[in-house]
Amino acid sequence: MRPFEHVDATSVSDAIALLKAEPDGTIIAGGTDLLDLMKDGLASPRVLINVKTIDGLDRIEADAAGHLIIGPITTLARLAEDARVRQDFLLLSEAISVTASPQLRNMATVAGNVCQRPRCWYYRGTFDCFLKGGNSCLAVGGRSRDSGIFGAAECAAVNPSDLAPALLALGASVVIENAKRRREVPLESFFTAPQKDRPGFTVLGRDEMIVEVKVPKQPVGSRGIYLKAMERKTWSFAQASAAIQLSRAEARVTDVRIILGGVAPVPWRASAAEDVLRGKVPTGELIERVAATATDGAHPLGQNGYKVKLAKALVKRGLAMLVDNSRS
Amino acid sequence: MPRIVRTKVEFEGEVRERMAVVEEDHITPWGSGTPLRIVGRSYPRTGGVEVVTGKATYTADVQLPGMLYCRIMRSPHPHAEIASIDYVKAESMSGVRAVLCHANAPGIRWFGDSLLFDRILRYEGEEVAAVAADDEEIADGALSLIRVRYRELPFVVEAEEAMKPGAVQIHPGGNIVGGPDGEVYRRGNVREGFAKADLVVEERYETPAAVHNCLEPHCCVAMWAGDELVLWDSTQHVYGIRNEVAATLGLPLNKVRVISEFIGGGFGCKQGVGKHEIIAALLAKMTGRPVKLALSRRAENLAGGVRHPTIQYLKAGVRRDGTLMALQLRSIANIGAYGMGGSEVGGPIRELYRCPNVLTEQIAIHTNLGPATAFRAPGYMEGMYGLESMMDQIARGLGIDPLQFRLLNYAEKDPMRGVSYSSKHLDKAYRTGASIIGWESRPGGQNAGARRRGFGMASQVWGGGGGPPAYAIVRLNADGTADVLTGTQDIGTGTKTVLSQIAAEELGFKVEDVRVTIGDSRAGPYAPVSAGSMTVPSMGPAVRAAARSAREQLLNLAADLLRVLATELSVKEGKIKSTARPREVAVGEITGRIGDFMIIGQGARGPNPSDAKVRTFGAQFAEVEVDVETGDVTVLRVAAVHDFGRVINPLTLGNQVEGGIVQGTGFALMEERIVDSPTGKALNANLEAYKVPTMLDVPSIESHPIDLPDEICNSIGAKGAGEPPIIPTAPAIANAVFDATGIRIRSLPITRDKLLEEIRRNAAF
Ligand SMILES: Cc1cc2nc3c(=O)[nH]c(=O)nc-3n(C[C@H](O)[C@H](O)[C@H](O)COP(=O)(O)OP(=O)(O)OC[C@H]3O[C@@H](n4cnc5c(N)ncnc54)[C@H](O)[C@@H]3O)c2cc1C
Ligand code: SF4
Hints:
The complex is a heterodimer of chains A (328) and B (765).
Chain A (H helix, E strand, L loop, with lengths): L4 E4 L3 H10 L3 E4 L5 H6 L7 E4 L9 E3 L5 E3 L5 H6 L1 H6 L1 H8 L4 H6 L2 H5 L6 H4 L38 H7 L3 E5 L4 E5 H4 L18 E7 L7 E7 L10 E10 L2 E10 L6 E2 L1 H7 L6 H11 L11 H22 L1
Helix pairs in contact in A: 11-12, 12-13
Chain B lengths: L2 E9 L2 E9 L25 H5 L15 E7 L5 E7 L1 H5 L3 E6 L7 E2 L3 E2 L4 E2 L5 E7 L2 H8 L3 E6 L6 H4 L13 E2 L5 E5 L2 H6 L3 E9 L11 E7 L2 E6 L4 H12 L6 E4 L15 H13 L3 E4 L2 H7 L6 E9 L5 E11 L12 H5 L5 E9 L14 H19 L3 H7 L11 E2 L4 H12 L13 E12 L8 E6 L5 E4 L9 H13 L6 E4 L17 H28 L6 E4 L2 E4 L6 E2 H8 L4 E6 L7 E2 L2 E12 L5 E11 L6 H20 L5 E2 L4 E2 L17 E4 L25 H13 L10 H10 L4
Parallel strand pairs in B: 3-17, 15-16, 19-20, 21-30, 24-25, 32-35
Antiparallel strand pairs in B: 1-2, 3-9, 4-8, 4-10, 5-9, 6-7, 11-20, 12-20, 13-18, 14-15, 14-17, 18-19, 22-31, 23-24, 23-29, 26-27, 27-28, 31-32, 33-34
Helix pairs in contact in B: 10-11, 10-17, 13-14, 16-17
The structure holds flavin-adenine dinucleotide (FAD) and iron/sulfur cluster.
């Protein structure tokens, strides 16, 4: 591991100035991903800019319009336990409750989580795959059990986050700052497929910082659910997951967002499936159709065909549970 | 008078004849009628509080003044030759005290035809160089300065590829260990047996490479005191390490001392000496400083040993009435570059059932993978999965209840040699397990809906009889307390606790007045490796014999002092009683009278019975729920009924059963080293990607040991319990998954991808 310097930032502008001044500088939050990357030689920053020392970045509050504002260094554990979150954005708590382990959730932050790098074992191991400057993706013709079934270009790794699909299902956005400006980016356009020079999954520039995550107020009676399938009962990344937020008026679905995790380089929005459901009364038969549509266009590799059936099952079950729940 | 006898000792399925020096007079075994006060009761683990409060000193906790830290550079290639190695920069780095590699290391033979540091590297993770430095970071930094030019060689990682003519040769003798049919066992004539069968089934099973992943990785600290070597080591055999290290370094046996007080698991991968102990000793010698060497988790996964994967071609023939006519197995074990041979995969096929015609061929194949080592019930666990899956399939094919089918083919005598068992209560285990799980009233198989329940069962047979040599010493102190000294070790099973109970029982002392010292080759006499479920049945009788000798000396002394006959005296709860007089005398009163003159009892493990086969048996029953939409498998309950002879301590025994089932559940559902065939490199050499069970994966476990003393096997009537519990778990779960779904996965682990793929192919869903 390359020797590094650790600097405590005192403010957002201080952190951003440090980022700009030090081309080999990286923000460190909980460090639960970054330190592993450094130990495995996948990141070798010269300066770690600690943002946990900045006042006010761990807030969880509602703005005047009732939108939820989450500070970037809020830990997953705190977010999941927050009373407002449990009341109005339960989907977030559900997703966090099946994320990693309690110890990790105590350290991991919201911004760190959405910025984490791929878990592909070729990437994390000692292999020269495309993402590390090699010629090709080794997973495609190799051990592809964990790879994506959607949207892969050169790299078949999936976005590993559980929080991201949940945030997307709630229509969240991130507020990003650099030395010049502050912009709000909907999460849907925040995530990108990982590329050679940018092994993360986001549009974030290297001198930029996430300063806020914003979750819009949900319609009254809107409900969410997060279902996740793992290799064991806990402490595992998703083989596939489904984050669903459903709003209804009378029996009809007024709005629905279905986001799949663990199947694509980005949290995968099943828009066509949403369209099948929107405006309709969700019967069992319709739910089957929605679920089938959710995996339309999947391109499984040699060993991940099961993810198609799995994603379908999660969508079907999630919707059925949401519909059942609101009935009772 | 010591005498020499021949005796058979079984170790992990292999029977070896040994000469035993026996000092003990025959001791009448504790029978079922013997009243015992301490043996058979639960006592919490000696040292348990230290372990859970972090106070226990494991090898990695040993801190010595001036100690250096060693890190090892490992081959990044599955097969390569070192063309050149340049370590000048590393050596001259500040804080670096010594570098070892093939260019400067002594030519110590290793793994037969290889060297401690060899130019030819035969697996990813093989040792290339070692650095001793002031701290681990410096050592790591130095490793990155060592420049190695590798000439990559063609490699092979799949066993069936490595068997083909023209495959890459890993050793001059070829990749197939022994003959082309490997180790062959034959009884009767399988051809005739299959001809007489009404139903013949052939299947192929696969079991994965499972990594031990002990919580405590391999670790040692080597320190020279003059010309003597002191080695703190995480090992399953302090004496074995002493012997092997002394032989390797050319030292007299009494100049090597091995200490291993607390051990964070071994499971078979810490049975013998590894390169790390020798490397640490050499570096300590070169630098004149103590050297600590702990394997990283990654090294542990690549080079620390692994349960060899198997491919099993199994064929079974059975009559319509359920009589087994023939069993045939050809097993192929992928033992990696340096595994010392395959394990007894054919063991269960040879000895579980009364079957007249049996043929087993066990083939072991070298490949460019890390060395296979023993892993909790090696061979039997793998073989039992194939056999018991097959038995389940056949029973169902015949329309016979799987449990009934097993009883139909029950072996009253050892099917291999026709001799009687010292004791066997497998039938009782079947019945008890069936009643706990509700076997008779279980719902019949594949119910509709997404979440389906299923029940499965499997049997267990294994050795665990232990044997000589094993020695103990019991010393009585002036205050009436006792010290038990032996060179055994506690690999996390509760050895200390159990031995203190046995000593206290025989002495007639309170258990808290007995202290057991183990884990130091200089403090106690020889004790066998803590493997093969050997420790309790070997050490228990030795400790009992030593305690008996001490008690007899004590009573003789008391008789003299009290002026009564020794035969009138007995000891209970630390008090000496006489049948002639009402007054009790505390032991301390007697021993106090002789002050520092000491009563020293010696004991040795006697020979094994010559005319009986000593085995442990058992059965496990599993109830699972399979979600046929998502592929989730949940093991709800496991009922475990094993026959280990007498139970010494129900609490520590229960821990063994639970641990075995946890590890067995991992083997059934998730554990597997995954290798990328095109590159020959491991993909999941860490605890994030290599999945072991978490608490939430553990089923509710109901363990009801049979607890009937085996009055023939040894003087305490107890057999080993370390390995048996892991054996039947995976087949019981696999059979339950079939019961729930009608799908039989013949390749462990039963993962979601395999299940969903089968479900997709199966029209019934
Ligand atoms: C064993 C294990 C299991 C796990 N299981 C799961 C799981 O099941 N589900 C899941 O979702 N995750 C899982 N994770 C990942 C874990 O959730 C992430 O590591 C964690 O959320 C990252 O947060 P952090 O604060 O520690 O980030 P860090 O490691 O500190 O940083 C991660 C990245 O984010 C960047 N970053 C951090 N804050 C900011 C900011 N404000 N602005 C811009 N960039 C920033 C850093 O520069 C770095 O590149 C697991 C991790 C481990 C080690
Ligand atoms: S999926 Fe991406 S990270 Fe994995 S091997 Fe392919 S290119 Fe590399």
